[in-house]
Amino acid sequence: MAITDHPITAKAHTNIALVKYWGKLDDQLIIPQNDSLSITLDEFYTQTAVQFSPSLAADKVVFDDQTLSATDSLRVRTFLDQVRALAHIDYRASVTTQNFVPTAAGLASSASGFAALAGAASRAAGLHLNRQDLSRLARRGSGSATRSIFGGFVAWQQGHDDATSYAYPIDEQPTWDIAVVALVLTAKQKKISSRVGMKRAVETSPFYPAWITASQTDFKTMKTAIETQDFELLGHTAEQNAMRMHALTLSSDPTFTYFNADSIKAMNMVRDLRLRGISCYFTMDAGPNVKIICHGSDAKRIAQHFQTAFGQDHVLVTRPGAGISISD
């Protein structure tokens, strides 16, 4: 096992959770409070190149053509320390990342980011991890990154320690006609990070125990919906689960929300479309952007409907995406 003499590049797609992860049992290891389930998206991804070198005095992190300060790169450098420990090396690394996801705006940019970093850094350090171990490693950077190792529909089993908490594929190449219309209502960084928000919900929301119970039921229901290709059951469960998660933010102390006015407008537009006989459902992660789950055959007209309201550049149509790819 030896470090590579050239940069290793990995590409990982982001995912949206259909059954949310919201809250940790272990902050250090990022062990979740419940199982979760997601769909990997083709349109949004991160591409990262990593090379370890004995000539580097410190880690260098370039993000979207900007060299990050020591403070801004702390999470990346901490993650690289995990890789160095696994590979038994102490070389510093050069990391270059291009992000094709609106950062920190509720489209899970950290999921694709740390999944890509896990793939590129581990291979550059001379490790050849299987996908389960890559999933475990990615989890240490960002919980949702554990799911971005795989394509299509992906589950993250809660587990109880580092060895047992990882993602696994349910259906990596869905054959049914499913699409996601993503509404990028803002690309601004959110004021309350997911980490801060979920910790506050766990510690202060009186409804948190009920959330755990309901989410475990939703997880089982969602797996059934995927296995039977029941679109209505999938959409309804995803929408309900999202609203339950956001109810935790509203019931925390102090209260907060990731919604903005356009989020509420978009959700009401989805409900109106259903009343008109167009089958579609919304979900939201920790940010104001709304994702609409629909039949692929309806995606174009649904997108056009929302482009009228929010502008063409703010509406993107995507399909289920692939798992991580690593190029030597």
UniProtKB/TrEMBL annotation:
GO MF assignments: ATP binding; diphosphomevalonate decarboxylase activity
Q: Which InterPro entries match?
A: GHMP_kinase_C_sf, Mev_decarb, Mev_diP_decarb, MVD-like_N, Mvd1_C, Ribosomal_Su5_D2-typ_SF, Ribsml_uS5_D2-typ_fold_subgr
A Gene Ontology cellular component where this protein is annotated is:
cytosol
Q: SUPFAM superfamilies given for it?
A: GHMP Kinase, C-terminal domain, Ribosomal protein S5 domain 2-like
For this protein, the Enzyme Commission number is 4.1.1.33
Report domain Mvd1 C-terminal positions.
Answer: 180-313
Q: Which UniProt keywords apply?
A: ATP-binding, Lipid biosynthesis, Lipid metabolism, Lyase, Nucleotide-binding
An example of a Pfam family matching this protein is: MDD_C
A single BP term in Gene Ontology: isopentenyl diphosphate biosynthetic process, mevalonate pathway
- What positions does the domain Diphosphomevalonate decarboxylase-like N-terminal occupy? 12-167
Q: Which family does it belong to?
A: Belongs to the diphosphomevalonate decarboxylase family.
Descriptive protein name:
diphosphomevalonate decarboxylase
